[in-house]
Amino acid sequence: MITAIIILTLLGLSLGTLLGVAASCFKVEASPLETEIETMLPGSQCGQCGFPGCAPAAAALANGDADITLCPPGGHALALSLAAKLGVHADLSSMEEAIPMIARIRSELCIGCTKCFKRCPTDAILGSSRQIHAVISDACTGCKKCFEVCPTECIDMRPIPITLQNWHWPSPAVAA
Amino acid sequence: MSNVATRLFRIRGGVHPNENKQATAGSCIVDMPLPELLYIPLQQHIGAPAEPVVQRGMKVLKGQLLANSQGVISAPVHAPTSGIIRSIGKYPAPHPSGLPVLTVTLQADGEDRWIDLPAEQTSALNLDPEDIASRVAAAGIVGMGGATFPSAVKLNLRNRYKLHTLVINAAECEPYLTCDDQLMREQPEDIIEGVRLMMHAMQVSQAIIAIEANKPEALTVMRQAAQQFDSISVVTVPVRYPMGSEKHLVQTLTGKETPARALTADIGIVVHNVATANAVYQAIRHGKPLISRIVTISGGAIGKPANVRTLIGTPIARLIEFCGGFTGDPAFIIGGGPMMGQPLPQTGVPIVKGSSGILALTEAELARKTTMPCIRCGSCVKVCPCGLLPLEMASRARAGDLDGAVDFGLMDCIACGSCAYVCPSHIPLIQYFSYAKGALTEKQRMTHKQEEIRRLAEARKQRMDQLAREKRAALAKRKADMAAAKARENNADAAKQSRAGA
Fold it and tell me: Is A29 exposed, middle or buried, given 0-12, 13-18 or 19+ CB atoms closer than 10 A?
């Protein structure tokens, strides 16, 4: 009885030590590429790419399981820098259709329920209980989280309005 | 008059487009009658738009402040005449996009009554330089050559750079335009006075007024007016486009080249337009804000081309009517000169502080030709005043390789249009560069937005974590409190029991 206890204890201790040593010797580092990509992504964990957050999306990108055009809030700029980072060809043709959208609250329908601004991952909605809410368009990523929870459907998703500040000439190659 | 800068230096490149100035050169400036409605955009300058201080229905006097400047790089806007504010809302901007901009609509009452103007300031040169700059800022003066950069900011450059020379740009190298020429012929003393004020504000010891050789009358009268001042010299510069580009003008006059993407202030020189000098004089001497300007209305499709003194906010259609309307079929209406000006989508848009010309060109003047492939003849390289390779930049911009275009010096391109002017294949080079510059700015804006959003998301996460921690801590505290209370109760019970037992 006592021998059995001693043998089992020794066995447990030695195997445990072996595992501990192996864990530190053969440690698998998290891919540095993954962390680098994660820092490039917006980090708002909006989920528009279909992944649960920016870290899983970065992992998928690093493994080549996801397309560089996956991130709508990142837009063309992000897709191009991802292409450069991953050394892949930037095919933005599928992105042309996905115009970046932002949310807008129709004030006549807003009841001030505060549901949307609690959900907003970037604090882009302003408001308080029973006050009309408003969207700060510069901070909106268009993740639609507010759009989904609004009980009165007062939130519209619309393309970023073109103003004198962000208008620019189209390419003559496209115009021709 | 001193003899500084008697020697001129050659710049590279440049072209000699048809001047076409004869239609308006030498004809006196005519005053545009008061239009019924004026549309005054609140952004007529580079920088932040002005913030309105008037409301609809308010009565305003000529020269009264309509909108205040916002931030460091901005300019206020004043009422060009007395009348009633009819609306403050969106109105098409004099901009190729035709997009709306916040605009004050003023209905003139016909009285044209000024605000109480201060007494004439005859000893302005005793004023503090800082004071002159702030008065220039309050008068809403911006660069009137077309760049519309707030002038006071440029006057204050002396705080950051060691300045020695003021260059007054009166080259007027754009074809058709004669508004600066005519202003010099009619108001040389005012301009010289303005130049002296600017020299004082910038604390520089010399000023050079540079005029192209094709304006002999202006040269004569300006020389006469400047004669009694040793520190001001009037210099004849050769006729070559783009002589009026500030960096090239400075190089012609001093032989010094401004470093890439730097300011002329880096080499101690600041360039102001000649019309700006006049506006500074009007503001300091008479206390009048910038509410009118001289505009060249010309082009083959204009009945009676003229230089018109008009109020800011006058619709272009009214000006064209005043100048005899359209005679031919205007193929293109341009704001500015034909080389660097921008097409205007409609004639309802108003004259703004930076409008130097309105040109209605006929199809014959435009001489539009079909674009052909680049034959790599190198004509554009020969004429580029900045020493760039326009053909290489354009081919990259065309393929969407913006960074490649930047590597070839896109950011040093001044968009003068010399390359497109000489291109035998009629390639729209400037259009490619405009597109590439715009797309790059857009990209930068998106990257900046990404960074900001990232910061916001992280801040929110931290805040949420903090809240959760606090909640947990509060819960733990409540639990501990409750446990302590219970323990006390138990203790008390036990004590009672033990007392009872005893």
Answer: exposed
DSSP state letter for B18? -
Nearest partner of B294 among B433, B424, B191, judged by Cα: B191
* Minimum Cα–Cα distance from A78: chain B residue: B447
Asked if A77 and B454 come within 8 Å (Cβ–Cβ), the reply is no
Which positions in chain A touch B99 (Cβ < 8 Å)? 162-164, 167
> How far is A151 from A147, CA to CA, in rounded Å?
9
What class is the A101-159 domain? alpha beta
Span A32-86 CATH architecture: Orthogonal Bundle (1.10)
| Per-residue pLDDT tens over the stretch A17-67 | 999 999 888 877 777 888 888 888 887 788 888 888 888 899 898 888 888
For the stretch B393-435, pLDDT in tens is: 999 998 888 999 999 999 999 999 999 999 999 999 999 999 9
Does residue B465 sit at the A interface (CB-CB below 8 Å)?
A: no
Q: Are B346 and B271 found together in one domain?
A: no
Task: Give yes or no for B205 touching A (CB within 8 A).
Answer: no
B14 domain-assigned = no
Total count of domains within chain B: 3
Q: What ranges do the domains of chain A cover?
A: 32-86, 101-159
Question: pTM (2 decimals)?
Answer: 0.82
ipTM of model over 0.85: no
Residues 340-399 of B with CB under 8 A from A: 371, 397-398
Nearest to B447 among A77, A139, A173 (CB): A77
| Domain encompassing residue B482 | 370-502
Mutation target vs A (from B45, B395, B456; most A CBs, 10 A cutoff): B456
**Distance (Å, whole) CA B148 – CA B312:** 13
Q: Do A77 and B460 touch (CB under 8 A)?
A: no
Burial class of residue B501 in the structure, from the number of CB atoms within 10 Å of its CB (0-12 exposed, 13-18 middle, 19+ buried): exposed
